[in-house]
Each structure stands twice: as C-alpha cells, then as structure tokens.
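Lab notebook: predicted structure, single chain.

Context: the supervisor wants predicted structures on file for every construct in the current expression panel, including those that have not yet been purified. This is the next one on the list. No modifications to the sequence; it matches the entry in the shared construct table.
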Amino acid sequence: MIGWPALNWFVLGFALFLSFGSTALAGDWADAAVARKTEGALGLPKLDHPSDNPPSAEKIRLGRKLFFDRRLSLNRTMSCGMCHIPEQGFGNYELQRAVGLEGRSLRRNAPSLVNVGYYKTLFVDGRETALETQFVSPLIAKNEMANPSIGYVVELVKSLPDYEKKFEAAFGGPATLQRIGQALAGYQRSLIAANSPFDQWKYGGDETALNESAKRGFALFSGKAGCSQCHLVGKEDAVFTDQSFHDTGYGWMREQERQNPPTTQPVEVSPGVVFHMSRKQIDDVSGPALPDLGRYEVTQDPADSWKFRTPSLRNIELTRPYMHDGGFARLKDVLAFYNGGGAPHDRQSQLLRPLGLEKSELADLEAFLKSLTSPDFSKLAEEARVEAPDNW
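Prediction complete. Output recorded below exactly as produced.
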C-alpha cells in the first residue's frame, strides 16, 4: 500500500510546524506525565517501574527530546517519532508496514506505543523484555535508523551540546547507553491512555457511559465469541492481553500468500484511488517479500512458528491498520477473520473456532471495541509537540 503523495505530507508537516508552541500546556507537562505514570488511570492497573529507573520529570523531558531527534539516525533524517506519530496514536495509520531510512521497507506495521509500559515483552515476537533496552534494535537496524553501532549513537549524543545539561539534570552525569535507554523508557511509559467509555461503565459505575450496542458487544466478547480468553478483562482493570503468544492462522495464511502471490496488486495512490499493477511491475522495483515466522525467530522452536504476542485492544479504533503486518485496514475485516475461525492449519491455536456470529452481533462487537477509545489521546499528542523536533 502506498501512502499519501508527497504534497500531502508537506502540508501536514507545515501544519504541525505552525502548531508547535501555539498551545500553552497548563503547568509543566512533564510533571503531569509523572503523575499519570504513578497514579494510573481508570481501567488500568498501577504501572510498575524498574527500581533503578524511577520516574522523574527531567527523564521524561529528555526522553521526549531523544524520541523526536532525527539526528540520531545515520543520515539525520529519521526519528522514533516518524514511525510512531503522536497524532496517529503513536503508530502510523497511513502505511501498512513501516518505512525506515531512505525508504527501506520493514516487514511489520508500526504499532501504537500508547500503554506500551504494560507489556511484559516488546515487539510482536517478544524479543525484548524491557523498554530500557528495546531502543537499541531500531537504532542499528539497517532498514530503520541504520546506525553502524550503538556505541556510535552514544558518542553522537555525547557530542551534541544541547544534551549535556539535560543529562546532568536527569542523571547527574553525561550520556551513556544505560541513561539513553532509561530516558526513552521513562518517556514511553508516560504514554498512558485509559478512562474510556468502557472503563467509566465497567470500573467507574456509570451506566450511561456505554450504549446498549456496546454492552451487548461486551457480553459477546466475554462469552459467545470467546475473545476474552486471550484479551483478558479483570475485575478491577483490564490491559486486554494475556501477554502470551498464539498462532491464529494469520501468519501462516500470509506465508501462503507470499509463496503464491497474486498476479496483480492493488496500489492506493491517494485516498480512495486504487490502481491494479502487475506483479512483474512491482517485482522490478522492489525487493523480495520476506517470511515472518513470529516467535520462532526468537526461540528457534518449530512449535512457535507463526505465533505472535496478543496485542492490547485499548484504543484499537485509532490504531489501524491491524495485525502484525497491517494486513487488515478495518475492524470489520479483523472481526470477519475471527468469525470465520481464522485460517485453520495444523498448528493453529485450539482456542480459535468458527463463531457463526450474525451481522448484528458483529456490529455490537465493533461498537464495544470502539468504546475502548480513550479521551486522553489528544493530550499525549499535545505533550509530544511541546517543542519542535531537533533537526526540523
């Protein structure tokens, strides 16, 4: 899928440029972020912090600066915030799969980072276990920010004079690998958004917060449809994930499609304008499609082939496209996939089965999923844009 034309990106970028500093945040935004991390939000449990990385406003301010600094990529053009866009739920709903340095394609969709602090493992294959170390991979991956080594990045940050005082304020010393990770982790853990209509109904006791369709959808979600077997809902809070890995059949299905590609491919050149190009035309200007075996790539255990981590469903209405590679553009497509039992094969999870839900039941399920949207997204985006990014 091809995203907006370059002109649209220019217009969006210019509008964002004009917006920097136009809205004064009440008080100190970083202090508010610390309070959010320590006090929690309706519907979510209190967030755990590593004992060696307690939250502070100075770390969050520094982490935000690092997150949006394009100087930290090899050719000074890419930042974390260019794939995890604040106005798009800290993901990217314009592209099916992420694009890194010099337009190099990734295999997977850029996931939302909102509520990322609640995951026990990171990346959809679970290859990282802490936000303090997760940042290394994107910085040195050749198709992401493409730095030659993580030591190179550390020396680069140390050489930039605008960071010296900020590291002193946050850590009492100069930039190090550990401190860079702690600052980035501190900022990302502050990206918390709950208090959704569902939370206000389920955990706040407000019967008027949820409409009847969404209430019926929740009954299906936790009953007939069986969604809550993996997307857990507790009595006092809900992260909406079992933190585990499952083969739903989707990864296997995509591998069959990779090995047997269609003769033509739809390419969206602008919203709603689609051309069907021949497979040969696409192959002539692109690299080969690569397999994605999910959790197997971490464990090397064949039993883990095509298993991916259960994602949280919070704010799912705002974090399209869906699945690990962004293969579904609409919630309706996701629901249709699971209603049909996924893509059955020998290793598919036994938790999946054809559901046989009626059209009205699918509509109720979608209404419930949309009730998980937090009203706090705009606040997180406002905090993210409190200053223009470095190398703007």
